[in-house]
Specification:
CATH topology of the largest domain: Rossmann fold
Low-confidence stretches: none
Order of helices and strands: EHEHEHHEHEHEEHEHEHEHEHEHHH
Strand content: 5-15%
Radius of gyration: 20 Å
CATH class of the largest domain: Alpha Beta
Largest sheet: 6 strands, parallel
Number of helices: 14
Structural class: alpha/beta
Length: about 350
Amino acid sequence: MIVPEGIDDPARPSGGNTFDRRVRGGLAARGWAVHVHAVPGSWPLPDSASYAALADAVDRIPDGAVVLLDGLVGSPAPEVVVPSAARLRIVPLVHMPLGSAADDGEADDGARQREGAVLSTAAAVVTTSAWTRRFLVDLYSIPNDRVHVAEPGADAADVAAGTAGGGALLSVGAVTPGKGHDVLLDALAMLTDLRWNCLCVGSVERDAAFAERLRRRVVDSGLHGRVDFSGTQTESELGRSYGAADVLVLPSRAETYGMVVTEALARGLPVIGADVGGVPEALGRGADGTRPGLLVPPDDPHALGDALRAWLEDSGLRGRLRRAARERRASLARWSTTASAVAEALAGAAR
């Protein structure tokens, strides 16, 4: 496995790091000899030192080896990856396609060309959602049978008790433009007549200037004392935050799957979020077909505000969504299933 440096660092929580760690352990449990090469660098925007570190890692891998290559490192580096495909069985693991739309809604043609060059020479490709699989096949004309889906797993967890009024809102994700916290604040500013509080858990260091602008907006919008940016939390702290919440709010502008969705559903929490990428796939449906949450158009604070108002004002709606979320818990994939899907893709690449 070639992964970005720091996947085991609790100060760098991300869905990609969690996925890589769980797959590493799952493959080892299935008898694979797993050798991890953690590559330092400014991924996915590498500098010369980043390329050199990746090249050094690749050079140390013996001929014929199967290489599960995290796309954060591999997709922007065709200069290193493409030549190595002649002697290695390269299998990129694409968490978030670099050729998808950026935070400003514009696709980066250069990123697409580089990612396309890497994926076109791969022995196989692993993605984390059916949505990502369709995106890659359509964009890069990759044969269907070379792209595999390994849906992220979810750990079993106790059901959150919830409150009568449903006003404990939780948002989980690094505070960056792509996660849409600005949209969330605009939506919440329309709901000051209702009882609620919102905890935003996630790094405020990735884009410190953006985070600071949001803090100022909290004050300017009259939300001081009702919105809290906690920064990163440990796994146990985050578990307590989920347990104390009524609903997860996910205003992202882009998500290939949204592991926080299934983390919430594992605790019976409904989700109110943007209808982007793989989010509907992660959300799924309850036993009777009811979706355990509400989806709204991305980048639309009015639609998000309306959905949150409906949740807060309609106890019947809250009850229906909570029942659907608790039913959905039973059908969530486990990490053992994720590891099996990755192992199958790697075994096929090895043949």
